[in-house]
Amino acid sequence: MHFKLLLVFVEDSKTDTVMKAAREAGATGATIINNARGEGVVKTKTFFGLSLETQRDVLLFIVEEHLSRKILETISDVAGFDEAPGRGIAIQLDVEDAVGVAHQIEALSDVVEEEL
């Protein structure tokens, strides 16, 4: 079984919604890093030196490669990434090797067979 790493940067108010949608699309879980900060094409305004930008979370998913595109598109739709600037981004990277995912392999074996 081959895996992909999905890196998702999203407003913290959308984290629970994204997690729920990703699970429904086939993700088995994620690691969430709170209070990340990003800067886009247009720098955010400040008020007396204090940033007015919203907090971001980074969600790290390791998903089976055949399910990765569906999960990625689901996350994008739910979070509205293409609706307006600053909503967030998601990328996927190949995972060359991983340990600690035996429980995912067991849980996903039947699901992946159905997809193929």
Structural class: alpha+beta
Number of helical segments? Answer: 3
User: Roughly how much helix do the residues carry, as a percent range?
Assistant: 25-40%
Strand order of the largest sheet: 2-5-1-6
Would you report the number of β strands? 6
- Work out the strand percent: 25-35%
Distance between the termini: 12 Å
Largest sheet entry: 4 strands, antiparallel
Q: Outline, from the CA principal axes?
A: elongated
Low-confidence stretches: none
- What is the N-to-C order of secondary-structure elements (H for helix, E for strand)? EHEEEEHEH
How confident is the prediction overall: mean pLDDT?
84
Q: Radius of gyration over alpha carbons?
A: 16 Å
Outline the structure in words.
- The chain has 116 residues and is an alpha+beta fold.
- Helix content is 34%, strand content 31%.
- The chain contains three helices and six strands; from the N terminus they run βαββββαβα.
- It has helices spanning 15-25, 65-79, 102-115; strands spanning 3-11, 31-36, 46-47, 50-51, 56-64, 88-95.
- The chain has a four-stranded antiparallel β-sheet. It has a two-stranded antiparallel ribbon with strand order 3-4.
- α1 (15-25) runs antiparallel to α2.
- The longest helix is centred in the middle third of the chain and has 15 residues, at 65-79.
- The protein is elongated.
- The two termini are 12 Å apart.
- The model has no long low-confidence stretch (mean pLDDT 84).
